[in-house]
Write a structure and sequence with these properties.
Elements lengths: L2 H9 L6 H19 L5 H28 L4 H16 L4 H12 L10
């Protein structure tokens, strides 16, 4: 809906039907805003928060396991990078960045048992 349509609907909102037209106009504007910026929808925000925290939890688990072992295998590193990309897209903060950078800096092969 364009801004001009909103203005016209608002101007038509006088008289007996004024209250009803105003309510309908406000509802239409709210629907339009949510479609335009879905991040403003409380349900979308909630899903993004849960997804972001789940992604961070996965990164922390992968990191913990790799640190215990002393290395990370390539499959785990690939998984961590995919999770981090999604996490960052959802607006993740520096915690995930620190973890992924640490994982990228680790060896990706087990230590030589002969040494």
């Amino acid at each position: 809906m364009s801004i001009w349509a909103e203005i016209i609907l608002a101007m038509c909102g006088s008289g007996v039907l004024g209250g009803a037209l105003t309510a309908v106009t406000q509802h239409l504007i709210e629907v339009w805003r949510r479609k335009r910026d879905p991040e403003e929808d409380p349900k979308v925000k909630a899903r993004n928060v849960l997804s972001r925290h789940s992604g961070l939890r996965i990164l922390k688990d992968l990191h913990r396991d790799a640190v215990r072992r002393g290395w990370i295998d390539l499959d785990e590193l690939e998984e961590a990078q995919e999770v981090y990309a999604a996490y960052a897209e959802l607006g993740g903060n520096g915690a995930g960045t620190r973890i992924i950078n640490d994982l990228r800096g680790m060896r990706n092969y087990p230590p030589d048992p002969a040494k």
